[in-house]
Amino acid sequence: MNTEILGVILIFLLSVALAWPLGKYMVKVFRGDKTWSDFMSPLERLVFKLSGIDPNQPMDWKQNLKALLGINIFFFLFAFIALAFQSLHPFWNPVGIGNWEPTLAFNTAVSFTTNTNLQHYSGETGASYFTQLLVFCWLQFVSAATGIAACALLFQGLKNKTGSNLGNFYNLMMKSCTRILLPLAIVLSLILTINGSTTNFDGLQEVTTLEGETIQVAGGPTAPMVAIKQLGTNGGGYFGPNSTHPFENPNYLTNIAENIAILLIPMALVFAFGFYLNRKKLAMLFFAVMSILFIAFVAISVSEEMNGNPAFTEMGLAANQSNMEGKEVRFGPAASSLWGVSTTATSNGSVNSMHDSHTPLSGGIFLLDMMINAVYGGVGVGFINFFVFVIVAVFIAGQMIGRTPDLLGKKIEAREVKIAALVVILHPLLILVGTALASYGIVQNPEYGWLNNPSFHGFSEMLYENTSAAANNGSGFEGLGDNTQFWNILTGIIMLLGRYLPIIGPLAIVGSLAAKKPVPTTSGSLQLDSPAFGAVLISVILIVAALAFFPALALGPLAEYFTF
Amino acid sequence: MKSLRIALVLGFSTIILFGVLYPMAMVGIGKAIPHQANGLPIEKDGKLIGFENVGQPFSSSQYFWSRPSAVGYDASSTGGSNLGPTNPDFLALVQGRIDTLIKYHPKLKVEDIPVEMITASGGGLDPHITKQGALIQVSRIAENRGLEVEALNQLVEEHSESPFLGLFGPSDRVNVLKLNLALDELAANQN
């Protein structure tokens, strides 16, 4: 069998195999059971004591939400000030990089606070060491931990027989950092360093090439930052071209490790759901539904990229060659496609190939992946998004068999369905309105010159940018000239709405579910862990995505595909 | 007031833990393996001449060429072309690269050109080409350096890297910088 395909299978299987024990471990952390990482507790207690937090104080969904939003406001403000006045903190800024334009600082501060990591700047030329570490590296931990903590609150809400206590957000967030993200990041960072990812503060180094030219090579503390950007579904690279850069991703082994890191926590949270509620069968069903979509997407993208660009064959090149524009020889087309699907499924947003240069259908798959935004999904929020689809599917299935829908022993009523429907509609609304505004702007004012590619592909660039912002993904069709006030403000607003409303809505749902009296399970109850419900769930996901997004996809990637 | 204190103290203490201590600790550990932590530098006669995994521009007829790069192998400001597969400008660029290759390798047939030699990588610093990409350049180098074609083919063969563990990922890659270093050595030994 083709070794490239074998590599893809290896990465997927290893991710699943590692996610299972991690899911078990995460549940222990959420519950506060004894684990090997208890040596962290003096440190956690110190931080809690200094900040006046009682980590054992029970909080209902509103108190938790207030805590989440409060700390996130601090994240944003600190990041914004640090970026807008970058030149004023001169230490750890060896190249002397200046202040950022306010809308770029706004966009980037939002981007890292919301776990999106859309980057309208380029890492090696725009950000000082201070910014890279004290702003970006830090936010990559705490924004990911915000998502994981929110997911743990959701689990508790679904588990409650009666009672409004969901757990303590501060406690869950801190432990997600110290006991889940930090140990994994240390391991991954070490793997990267050993394989030649720079881990220093050397700035630019002068190299004299074999042909006698002098070139400058940028280094820096790459490995620790790449580790957390992969694990926390962040995606904000140290260098502009992200994990295509040899210092971010030096060889095939690091590519395996980094790709697993993209999928690991999102997959583990699905298993954690099963362990936490003791509903392993249901968790397996959810995992199967996600994996069916994931594998189908990978298969399409891999085959499209390996089949290559038909226009090249017309120029006389051999027909059996793959599409290598924007790709690295050391990864090859198959591993690049797997990464592309992984990063768009999980709202990670890091890349190991340039998505703008993928063949039309492969790029279209990436878009669809972000439009669904619940195939494993971003750390924490991915499962929360999936949960919203589950509510809608339970409601529809209940209607079909003529019974009051119930989920895990709680009745789903008008209030829950209304909130779920609003959250489901929000995503296409943000994407399509944003794309419409941008399309109008560029058609009326062609002199803006955002687009790197003409025609259908140019439309795809704008669609991708808005989709990426709404899904809190952060990857891009990077040809788009997106560092303009228009794009900075537009995507900044989309990221904010796309992050917080899908957290607030589902928390409100579990808040109200948690307080409800359980209904007894009877033979008339909807059986969730059955293949039939799995089929309904897949249909709901695909119909929502297809109905809302098909026209936009038809104008972009599909139209481009048919020009071949 | 209470939530302000929480936000400030929790915020700043996490900044210290994850924005300062974590990266500093990893850089500290890196000091134990300086060669790797500095990105696998290659030195020759005490001068830094490159990094194992960072591609370099080669344009003279004496050397094996790297892939095209959207940033001309500028390792202080990297990136890809981000050109779409149907973009006419992109296709014209590719045609130009084919023409250049044919010009410098008159016996080369278009259908023998491997695709990576006419496309730019994502980061603009791809250190590799395929074995085929190196083999098509052998005749030019043999002529310009007065070396045997057979010896050069042998050299390419020796530098051809197999998949990870022999099983996973692309096969038959050649690291251009390492290949050219070996080429210089070979030429020096012959003369």
Low-confidence stretches of chain A at least 5 residues in length (pLDDT < 50)?
none
Trace the largest sheet of chain B across and list its strands: 3-5-4
Unreliable stretches of chain B, pLDDT < 50, 5 or more residues? none
Instruction: Specify which chain pair forms the largest interface.
Output: A-B, 123 and 98 residues
Oligomer category: heterodimer
**Tally of individual domains of chain A:** 1
Mean pLDDT of chain A: 92
Quick summary of this structure?
Chain B: Its main location: membrane. The complex is a heterodimer of chains A (564) and B (191). Chain A is an all-alpha fold.
Structural description of this entry:
The complex is a heterodimer of chains A (564) and B (191). Chain A is mainly α and 564 residues long. Chain A has one domain. Chain A has helices at 3-31, 41-51, 61-84, 102-113, 123-126, 129-159, 169-194, 222-231, 252-277, 280-307, 310-314, 332-345, 360-372, 381-401, 414-444, 455-470, 485-515, 531-562; strands at 204-208, 214-218, 406-407, 410-411. In chain A, helix 1 (3-31) packs across helix 9, helix 3 packs antiparallel against helix 4 and helix 9 (252-277) runs parallel beside helix 12 (332-345). Chain B has 191 residues and is mostly helical. Chain B has helices at 2-30, 34-37, 88-104, 131-135, 138-145, 149-158, 176-190; strands spanning 41-44, 47-51, 128-130, 160-161, 173-175. In chain B, the strands form 2 sheets. Chain B has a 3-stranded antiparallel sheet. Chain B has a two-stranded antiparallel ribbon with strand order 1-2. At the A-B interface, helix 1, helix 2, helix 3, helix 6 and helix 7 of A face helix 1, strand 2, helix 3, strand 3 and helix 7 of B.
